[in-house]
């Protein structure tokens, strides 16, 4: 069996050790005689799996007691609705900072439930920058300010948490969740689809400050109602059990790596290797303002688009998979989440250097 270096933006590579543990436990989870996929979510075994995952996530992120941690379904896109449905109960004004495709989708969805307002947008630079904080037009009475700390498609990342005073800060952290430490107390709500840094697709983590729950819009579906889900330990209905289990294994793996400080150091080094190589080359370019380049998703263009197909074919042959860029940006994109070993980035850089030599 040979495994490739998988640069997919999501679903994405998982740590090999996690997959091996899941394989070892597939037929008989810890003497229960059944797979985690076959267990009742109300049974003792699965409840212990869910509790363990939740405890590990709280510990990794240092989640304070006045926040709830939920494991929901419907993806991060479900939370494009979940946020307005929960936070616009008495105040329909929600402000959005749009720094890429996902922020655009979030504000559009919020329009179905309230009165969203674009506080800032980087569309005029084709989403290669982040508008300076002092240019944002945040309404004093906004129910929340929503932003996307890492835009997966454009490869644009906030390297500091913006200060919005008393307005609750809401973050779609899908693509840089658990890649670096965060100060949870600066946020009202954080949500993240699992399929980049936390586990398989099908489960979405929501971390919500307790005082923001319990005042949803009257039409809020129960499965998106944060208070109801918190009261039911995210088991108002059947949760995404197997994905939750794999998330728990991934959290344990992260703890073994030394936690978020340690993984941040590695992620910084991996990203710097790739950006330094791109910047030093005349053949590859990355269009993003260097101050806001993503550590997780690195888009890059070749000097000649006509070479794209050949680059992708040869990369696949070299065991470097899923490097095609998003259609709205073109070129290539290397997603280098936590589970991408540093050796994978080294292999990519070596391949790019060789390709440049023969085609540049
Ligand atoms: N937000 C961001 C930043 C994303 O990268 C994605 C998925 N790539 C989404 C939202 C949508 O996530 P989902 O497919 O889980 O709904």
Q: In a few lines, what is going on in this structure?
A:
The chain is α/β, with parallel strands linked by helices and 360 residues long. 34% of the residues lie in helices and 16% in strands.
Give me the secondary-structure topology:
Blueprint: E1 5-6, H1 16-24, H2 44-61, E2 67-72, H3 75-87, E3 93-98, H4 101-110, E4 115-121, E5 144-147, E6 150-151, E7 156-157, E8 169-172, E9 189-193, E10 204-209, H5 226-231, H6 241-257, H7 259-280, E11 284-285, E12 297-302, H8 308-317, E13 320-321, E14 332-335, H9 342-359
Parallel strand pairs: 1-13, 3-4, 3-5, 5-8, 8-9
Antiparallel strand pairs: 2-10, 6-7, 9-10, 11-12, 12-14
Helix pairs in contact: 1-6, 2-6, 3-4, 6-7, 7-9
Structure in words:
The protein is α/β, with parallel strands linked by helices and 360 residues long. Helix content is 34%, strand content 16%. It is built from 9 helices and 14 strands. The strands form 4 sheets. The protein has a 7-stranded mixed β-sheet with strand order 2-10-9-8-5-3-4, with helices on both faces. Strand 3 (93-98), helix 4 (101-110) and strand 4 form a beta-alpha-beta unit. The mean pLDDT is 98. Residues 10, 75-77, 102, 148, 152, 172, 174-175, 193 line the site of 4'-deoxy-4'-aminopyridoxal-5'-phosphate. Residues 10, 75-77, 102, 148, 152, 172, 174-175, 193 line the site of 4'-deoxy-4'-aminopyridoxal-5'-phosphate (PMP).
């Amino acid at each position: 069996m040979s495994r490739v270096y998988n640069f997919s933006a999501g679903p994405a590579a998982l740590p090999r050790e996690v997959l091996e543990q899941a394989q070892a436990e597939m037929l008989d989870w810890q003497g229960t005689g059944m797979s985690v996929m076959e267990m009742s979510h109300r049974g003792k075994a699965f409840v212990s799996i869910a509790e363990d995952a939740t405890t590990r996530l709280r510990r990794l992120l240092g989640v304070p007691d006045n926040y709830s941690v939920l494991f929901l379904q419907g993806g991060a896109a479900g939370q494009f609705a979940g946020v307005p449905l929960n936070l616009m109960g008495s105040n329909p004004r929600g402000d959005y900072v749009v720094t890429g495709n996902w922020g655009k989708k979030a504000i559009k969805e919020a329009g179905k439930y309230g009165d969203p307002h674009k506080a800032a947008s980087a569309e005029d630079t084709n989403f290669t920058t982040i508008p300076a904080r002092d240019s944002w037009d945040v309404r004093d009475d906004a129910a929340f300010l929503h932003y996307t700390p890492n835009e997966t498609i454009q490869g644009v990342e906030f390297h500091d948490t913006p200060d919005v005073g008393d307005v609750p800060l809401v973050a779609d952290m899908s693509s840089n969740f658990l890649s670096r430490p965060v100060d949870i107390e600066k946020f009202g709500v954080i949500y993240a689809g699992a399929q980049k840094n936390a586990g398989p697709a099908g489960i979405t983590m929501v971390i919500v400050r307790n005082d923001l729950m319990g005042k949803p819009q009257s039409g809020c579906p129960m499965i998106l109602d944060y208070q109801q889900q918190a009261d039911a330990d995210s088991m108002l209905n059947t949760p995404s059990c197997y994905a939750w289990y794999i998330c728990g294994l991934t959290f344990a793996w992260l703890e073994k790596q030394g936690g978020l400080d340690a993984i941040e150091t590695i992620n910084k080094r991996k990203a710097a290797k790739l950006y330094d190589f791109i910047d030093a080359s005349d053949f590859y370019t990355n269009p993003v303002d260097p101050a806001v380049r993503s550590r997780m998703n690195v888009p890059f263009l070749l000097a000649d688009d006509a070479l794209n197909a050949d680059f992708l074919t040869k990369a696949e042959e070299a065991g470097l998979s899923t490097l095609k860029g998003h259609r709205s940006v073109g070129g290539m994109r290397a997603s280098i989440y936590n589970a991408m070993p540093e050796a994978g980035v080294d292999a990519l850089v070596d391949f790019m250097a060789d390709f440049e030599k023969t085609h540049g």
